[in-house]
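the two lines:
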Amino acid sequence: MSESRAVSATRDSSRTVAAGLLAWVWPGLGHLYLGRFGKGLVLMGSILALFVLGVAMDSGLQLHLGLEDPLALLFSAAQMGVGAPYVLARLLGYEAGFVKSPTYEYGNTFTAVAGLLNILVLLDALDTARGIRR
Amino acid sequence: MRSHLVNLLLFSGLVATVFAMLLRDQTRERVRFGLLAFAAFVLSTLVIGWITNPFPR
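prediction for all of em together
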C-alpha cells in the first residue's frame, strides 16, 4: 500500500514539474497538458495576442542582465516570462524595437504584461496539477 | 495601431480575459467578471485621462 502511494506521489510531482515547465515554455501549454483544453486555448490565445501585438507595436526585447540598471533588469525579466515566444521573436530579429515609433511604449507595456500574465498562468497550472484548483 | 483608444480596448479585453479565466471557474461567472474587469479598465483609464488632461507635463 505504502509503495503504491510512493509511486503515485512520484507521478504527481513529475506531472506538476512537467505542467510548470510547459506552462512557462509556451503560454497555455501547461493547462493543455493537464487536460484543461478550453482554459489552455483561451489563455494561449490571449497572451500570445498581447505579445504579438506588442512586438508589432515596435516593442524592444533587449536582454538586460546585471544590476547597474535594476528597473531594466526587472522589465527584461517580465518580458522573458512569456517563454519561447520571446526567444523566437529575438531570433527573428525583433529584439531592438524602434524607439522613435509612436507606439514603442505601448508595445513595451503589451510585451511585459504578456510575460507577467504568463507567470500567473504558470502558477495556476502548478496549483491545478497539485489539485488545489480545478 | 496608432489609435490610443483601440490600444486601450485591445489591452483591456485581453487582460480581462486572462484574469477572468484565472479567477473564476464557471463560464457564466467568467463572462460576468471579464466584462466587469474590461469596463473597469476602460472607464478608469478614461477618467484618469480626463482628470490629468489639464496637466500634460
